[in-house]
Amino acid sequence: MATSASPSPVATIHSCAKTVCVTGAGGYIGSWVVKLLLERGYTVRGTARDPEDPKNRHLKSLDGAGERLTICRADVLDYASLQLAISGCGGVFHTASPVANDPGLVAAAVDGTRNVMNAAAEAGVRRVVFTSSFGAVHMDPNRSSDTVVDESCWSDPDYCKKTNVLSLSLSLSLCAVPGSFHSSGPCGCRQNWYCYGKMSAELVASEVAREKGLELVVVVPSVTVGQMLQPALTASVYHVLRYVCATKTAYPNEVQSYVGVKDVAMAHLLVYENPSARGRYLCLSCVLHRAEVVELLAEICPMYPVTTRCQDESSARKKPYKFSNQRLKDLGLRFTPIKQSLREMVISAKANGHLLPPSSYRPSPL
């Protein structure tokens, strides 16, 4: 595995830390967090609304799962179920979050996070790792192009609520995600409730941590790509596959940040295991123009009708913004080349039946 970091003993936090809880254990990032925790010797309690749902079956096949993984029936909006799942744990990884452009789900994200934080405090947990989103960072129309995007940056909540420009995070959440890839893509909503919800949930986590004396560390991943452990197609993978299959007939003249899912999971472990880790950690490995993304995909998938046309060929090509991921590098994280993560994503999409043979897709019109 290309993702690597200096080894850190399980007992660096405190004596109870060998048992941890991971909310949303069956999700894209959650599954990888569970996998790496098991590989490092932790006993893991993963939460799922239905432990017997086939979409969680992959967790039982992970190395060490038979001895050290329990899938608990829990919902972040059901406080009593969280109490049972978290009781006796030394740490909590809160990866669960609704992904949709629905204002009603903002409350679910916020209330669910508050429940997790309060249940962790009640159980005597010392450290919580919260999975935020780059959507809580980049939605600020007044930020200068010369600004280095780092942990000090926040999205503008009013802009999120009123913008009619779909950020990538939002467009991902709106995509229909079929069993095999042939969907037409996102609809045109006007409010970015996903970014607003992630930012609001992170702020609530910080507020409860201060009130309850919890150590809170936040990982802020950008668009995440790489091998899928879970059988269900994720929104971020869908975003990339639509270019592989040319169901997205043209790419926008835009830039976007990307990171490999293995790196995101390793970042969670590093910030948990390092006693001095505090605050936010921006987790992105590169900023690419969409043209660079499709060029990489064409190299990886030469037999597929990869999208080649830009939606806006008359304007100057957008330039990547500056960013800093130095805080994670200082903890020992070495980021995987994004081409490798994209290749692993394509391989797993094929294995799970989400990406059909090349002959199933028609080239995009010129």
From TrEMBL:
Species this protein is from: Colocasia esculenta
GO function terms (MF aspect): oxidoreductase activity, acting on the CH-OH group of donors, NAD or NADP as acceptor
The entry's keywords: Oxidoreductase
Protein name: NAD(P)-binding domain-containing protein
Domain of life: Eukaryota
Gene Ontology terms describing biological process: lignin biosynthetic process
Record-linked Pfam families: NAD_binding_10
Keyword Isomerase: no
